[in-house]
Description:
By secondary structure, the chain is mostly helical.
Amino acid sequence: xxxxxxxxxxxxxxxxxxxxxxxNQEANGAIIASPDFAQYHYCWLRDGSFCAYALDLAGEHExxxxxxxxxxxxxxGIADDIDGVIAQHERGEAPDRLHMPPARFDLDGSxxxxxxxxxxxxxxxxWLWSLGQHLELAGAAGVPEHLFGSVNRVARYLSAFALSPxxxxxxxxxxxxxxxxxxxxxxxxxxxxxxxxNIDYQTSAERVRARVFDDAARVGHFVKSSANDDVDGxxxxxxxxFGVVHPxxxxxxxxxxxxxxxxxxxxxxxxxxxxxxxxxxxxxVLTGSLGLHYLALGxxxxxxxxxxxxSDHIDQSGRLGEQFGGEVRDPKHFHEWIELWGxxxxxxxxxxxxxxxxxxxxxSFEDSDxxxxxxxxxxxxxxxxxxxxx
Length: 390
């Protein structure tokens, strides 16, 4: 399947990345975040859901289905906890964040008990979005019966806590509401509405979208969080894949310009301005996201630059790390993290996933009749407010 979608000179790298994802998938469907970095020996819903999407684009539907079944089992294992915090919310009570549904699980699907922040709702939205893409790409008639309960439960959870403070996609700033988290939640709720036919989930999604635009209206661009008007590389997801804004929206264009100006590093994209994690190198995940944005604007040259930057950082063993360049940009903090945790992840499964997604999307775009084809299965509700569109 991959060979049919990507050019011959790129097919080997893409296939190798697909195989890396498959190699990092457990028999039960869990996908480890990184095999060579002890702190990442878990399955994050966010990382895994992007990986499952990449597998679907590459035609590996059975592997993607096993991941979604694993999430279903993990959610079923905490069903009472999810129902409990929803009930507390409906009674006007504030649940203890230590007992909120976790963002990551052990590979056997059990809850991780440690001191690492684990209350992030973005992964649950990303899972629903990814499941929707899986069912569409695999040609499913609807939500399989064994998944229905978890899909509805997660959608109810997202509806209840969509605008609540939680830790961001980087496990930081737990007292704030983060825009990229809202994007993930929006994508999940839109998918839930499409999959279940419940209009309440679309209503919740539009409430989330309104909040995103309200924050942008204050400063002329989309913001990192309720407490930080700077930008974050993960804001790129507002357009692709989650469709909160149109790629040509004026505020979003201003946001992308700021991301490129403030977070660009040797052709790649960093996480955020004040980042010090391993010196704040450039991430393939975010660089791939910028490439998908270029493609959504009809700029395959920009997308190819991003893809080539990622390709250049795949080592001879086929590994693709989490980030690059931090040792030069900020050697002090880079070495502080080395002393604490050892070298950064040399092989991040999510990095491979974004390389696969961008490569297949770019080849599909260039092979389309007019060179202007929407991204595979990513074109759900790319709408924008009239006053925000150029």
